[in-house]
Amino acid sequence: MRRYFPATVHYIVLTICAFAVMYPVLYAIATSLMSMGEASMYPPHVIPHHFNLRNFIDVFDLVPIATFIGNTFLVSIVVMLGQLITSSMAAYAFARMNFKGKNLLFAAFMATMMIPWEVTIIPNYLTIRGWDWLDSYQGLIVPFLAASFGTFLLRQFFMQLPTELFEAARMDGCGHVRIFFSHVLPLSRPAIGTLAVYSFLQMWNAYLWPLLITNSDRMRTVQIGVSMLQHQETTQWNLVFAGIVLVILPSLLMLALGLKQLVRGMTVGALKG
Amino acid sequence: MNRLDDTLHLPHEKVQVRPAQLRGARTISGLKWRENLLAYIFLGPSLILFMIFFFYPMIQSVYLSLHSTDLTGRVNGFAGLDNFSYLFNNHLFFNGLKVTVYFALLTVPTGIILALILAALSNGKSKGLTIFQFAFSLPVVLSVGSSSVIWMFLFHPSLGMLNYFLSLLHLSPINWLVDPKWALLSVSIMTVWMNLGFNYIILSSGLRGIPDEIRESASIDGAGPLRLFGQILLPLLSPTLFFLVIVSVISSFQAFGQVNILTHGGPMNSTSVLVFSIYQEAFENFRFGTGSAQALVLFVIIIMLTLIQFKWAEKKVHYQ
User: Fold this and answer.
1) Within chain B, what is the greatest distance between any pair of CA atoms?
2) Do A227 and A137 belong to one domain?
3) B80, part of any domain
4) What range does the record give for the signal peptide (chain B) (predicted)?
5) Does the bond joining A116 to the residue before it have cis omega, within 30 degrees of 0?
6) Any domain includes A185
7) Is A112 part of a structural domain of the chain?
8) A232-252 confidence digits (pLDDT tens)
9) Are residues A107 and A168 in the same domain?
10) Which of the residues B146, B207, B258 would you substitute to probe the A interface, choosing the one with the greatest number of A C-beta atoms within 10 Å?
11) A to B CB pairs, distance under 8 Å
């Protein structure tokens, strides 16, 4: 490859591409550090001349972003834990137990992966409203507590665990419950990590459902909050972007810490296909 | 219970206790029964949640699509296929379908080709490439909400960076989101960027799965990088590419957030994609019956795409 394509040219092309892909995020970070005057200047500055960290304090006065962040953290963490519990239990049953109707139930679980969530929103909205759960944490959390994707991911992993492990545990007189808690779960940390990253991001980034069922500032989540920022009758772009940066920060952290986990989760589907 | 009890207790007690235990747990059918029970306890939480939030809503969607509802979503009466015939006689519904197909055509090929180029450029094991792999994966963690708001400002007609870059090239500014000719293209540009991370991750994992020996023997045979890529790596990558095409088409049919934030379906319905019109029908016009009918149309389209993918996967297994 080297002979035809000198390394320097290769890296220059890569750097230009990387800059282009990252540009919207870099722009958001740069603008979030500018003063109000600098942010609305034309021609625009690419790099802020002074680092104005006060924006990250002032944005809390513009919209109740602290409440949004707190709400979304709560919802995301509870959904993450819930999905880990329900998916790992269901996955264990599918991977390691024999029971009546196993194939049929597995097909039913897989079918939920094919039904796009958008198709079910109208009845789900009516259900949640019927239970008087609009504008509540339950309404944001409960519909997402089970995940067929997570069940599938963990089932694949559980099935790859060595059979000797299960035979040895059986010999020692362990039942399914003991095997599940003290052998399978501790050995499955990588797959559980993948599902944790996924389910957290899924809830942190959720847009349509929170938009439908929340309507007070007290219950709004970050993604709705951030889209409210653009409607503010304001030219304070620096504050708006300070808000955006606060909202995308956990996602960027997840990427830096969990890229491997994310890649594993995505390729589970791709390698099947 | 255990051996310690056995040795301590009197013989006639032992005889009374053990048969009961045997019958409960140690017989084959008892074991099977217990395993069945335990399995359903393990599946229970997921099953109950899926029943309430997936299977019941699917049935309810069909039910609602055959009825008319009042403004609060309560069923007024049986409507037969009226909701569907209303849809198929409504130019707005066909406009929505047309916009969605255009949107898929604008976003899917561009998104995959760009990601393929980036994956080919950054494919390799050298340490210096890690940072680029990170950069190209970046959009995958960003939500449709925050991405749309960032792009909203990039598209800003007078202060936005895109028009500033155009002015540097001495081109006249574009009314990205307001001009009906440009709005769908603008939403598509933003969507291509947003999906780039996912496409890139899938394609570069696919490339990494191709054994090094194939590359080496090809370059020994004198294949240049372009021939190597076009004639050897690309065909080997075709299952991954096919998977990605289907998944991308499905996700383009599910697009909502960027349209709601950037254009709200406008100008002149030029960006009113299918999910957005379902949302509008049900939650802005409060017509839950026709909204459900549209949702079922979406369901049929997506199920067909999924089946095509399964058929393909099956074929692939047969040939191997």
Assistant:
1) 103
2) yes
3) no
4) none
5) no
6) yes
7) yes
8) 656 678 888 999 999 999 889
9) yes
10) B146
11) 271
Q: Are residue B139 and residue B55 in the same domain, yes or no?
A: no
Which residue intervals of A97-236 are DSSP H helices?
Answer: 102-114, 121-130, 137-141, 148-160, 163-171, 176-179, 185-187, 189-204, 208-213, 222-229
| Residue among A146, A206, A227 whose CB faces B50 most closely | A146
CATH assignment at residue B272: 1.10.3720.10
Most distant CA atoms of chain A, gap in Å: 76
Contact between A4 and B229 (Cβ < 8 Å)? no
Query: Which residue in chain A has the smallest CA separation from B74?
Result: A126
Q: Are residues A21 and A72 in the same domain?
A: no
Nearest-CA distance from B225 to chain A in Å? 6
The amino acid occupying position A20 is: A
Tokens 């499905």, residue? B250
Nearest Cβ partner of B161 from A27, A248, A251? A27
Provide the chain B residues 28-87 that lie in CB contact (below 8 A) with chain A: 32, 35-36, 38-40, 42-43, 45-47, 49-50, 52-58, 60-61, 64, 73
- The residue segments making up the domain with residue B23 are 3-65
Q: Are B53 and A226 inside 8 Å of each other by CB?
A: no
Tens of pLDDT along chain B (320 residues) come to 444 444 444 444 444 444 444 444 567 888 888 889 999 999 999 999 999 999 999 999 999 999 988 877 788 888 888 889 888 888 888 999 999 999 999 999 999 999 999 999 888 777 788 889 899 999 998 999 999 999 998 998 888 889 999 999 989 889 999 999 999 999 999 999 999 999 999 898 888 888 888 888 888 888 777 888 888 888 888 888 888 888 899 889 999 999 999 999 889 899 999 999 999 989 998 889 989 999 999 999 988 888 887 787 666 644 43
Name every chain B residue with its beta carbon within 8 A of the beta carbon of A68: none
Query: Is residue B79 situated within a structural domain?
Result: no
